[in-house]
Model the fold of this input.
Amino acid sequence: MHDPSVTTRTVDEKQVTLSVELARCRETVSTLRAECERLKLIIENAPVLLAYLDADHRYRFVNSAYSLRYGGKADEVLGQPVADILGEKVWAEIKPYRERVLTGETLEYEVDVEPVPGNPQRMHCALNPARSVDGRVVGYVVAVTDVTDRKRVAEARDLLAAIVESTDDAIISMTLTGHVTSWNAGATRLFGYTADEMIGRTTLRLDPPEEEHQILNRINSGENVCRYETVRFTKDGRQLDVSLSAARMRDDTGRIVGIAKVARDITDAKQAEAAIQRSQEALREADRRKDEFLALLAHELRNPLAPLVNALELLRPASAADPALQRLRNMMERQLTQLERLVDDLLDVSRISRGRFELRRAPVAVALAVETAVEGCQSFIEAREHTISVDIPTEPLMVQGDFARLAQVFANLLSNSAKYTEPGGRIEVTVRKSGAEAVMTVCDTGIGIPRESLDIVFDMFSQVQAHKQHARGGLGIGLALVRSLVEMHRGSVDAQSDGPGKGSTFTIRLPLLQTPAEAKPNPPQPDTLESRAQRTRRVLIADDNADAAASLASILELQGHETRIAANGHQAVELAATYRPDIIFMDVGMPLLDGLEATRQIRAQPWGKSMLIVALTGWGQQNDRRRSREVGMNMHLVKPMDLNEIAAVLDRYGTDGR
Done:
């Protein structure tokens, strides 16, 4: 039925309106589609992992970042439950949060996931509920951010802060102008000021102003301050010794933003250092006193030795006709020789330890040094009823060294073997060439050395237990002196033994001279006193030891010389003026006027300038010899004098033409 109110015009207007609305709808749809594309693009390229999950915790949407992290492709993740993608362990940890978001709660949490075994990652998750048109929660959206690096940086920062706060060192940061920006607990403990009292202020209340300005200038000029030892003051006025280090601080861009200073309390270390220094000074003083004691001991021992040696020489003619007396004389001579050697060893050890020992180096025939040592120890070896064999090659073996000291080394080894071998034992001495070395070996059948003691047998004053229990145990200096002297000759010495009761072997190795043909032979040994033909001398003996003076005078008178004796320095000067001796044997340590001053007074007189003045004393160190030379003494002899030395003095007078 036709409605008369609807006209053609009305229909046309409605069509136009519909067309316009349709165009608008199409435009809106196009706009929405474009917006959706842009939104999808944003979601896909977002720097976070985005996912939408339904109420059953199944994935309904994931962006590319999420799928790449946990699946690789979106269709491999979509529809899957969370537990299958993240793992049961992670699901058990995050399930409570996921249940809460379905109740409409918005929340955040962090969780560790391990998409690659051994590479855990820290994830920050933000959960928002997704609602339907009627407001029901039908799922939720999760935004995941990887905070692993940030977490590590934070943990490192927290750890560093904990270290800074827990250390006993004062760690301070400052501006380039010296104002404090941070002040740790160590600084408070060290200086007494709190952070509130120091931040924003300078450290001039702690530091001497001029020194603080110097440090700031050094730092600002690019120089670092490392372990600078100085003094700082605490809040209560105490003075602290500190070790200070400082350097410029830079930010991530390299810009200089301040100064870092570290101060460490070294008060205890300084006190310990001072205590060590005092101990070292005390040790040096004790060492000096020890050296003085050894020198005094040698002097006091040598003084009584001198008349004994002289008396033995006087007994020589009488003992020659009486075998019993000859045996007694030989025994006394051996014991005196041992005592002299002990005194010499003590002084040599002292001089070596102080670096005041010098070798008189020259080409030395090893065979001659060994033969000299054997000859010197022969009487002691015979007294012990030992058998000794010596095997020396005919080929000359020359070394660069001090003949007397090498003979002393070999003699010490021989004496050691004789001492620690029961009577009736055997000692074998061999010398041989081994490559570029001369090798000397002393082998005995003695009490031996425990294996654990082989390393210490050459140590100063060491006492091997087996030797301690031996009746002839010594001071433990002979072998120490052997090692020192051998090493001074650039050689080596070692000891071998299979144990107690199995004997010992000592081996010395010395570098051979490369051109032995050019080496000069050792000087001939001096003859005995009796073998020298001498003319009569006028001799003055000045010594407060009456026995020593009288015995020496007797020996000289037996040789046909004239003698006078002075008991002190004053008498020596007076007798020299009246008696006019050719030679004066002058003791140094005499009462009233010592031998040095007596010599000065004699040399000051015209008649005293040509006399031969010989120091005769128990003092034999280098300093003693120097003082003798300074006052004008011609020679310095140490008690007890060897009779060959007396002969050398008398010979010198003759060759000097006096």
User: Anything to note?
Assistant: Confidence is low (pLDDT under 50) at residues 468-472, 516-533.
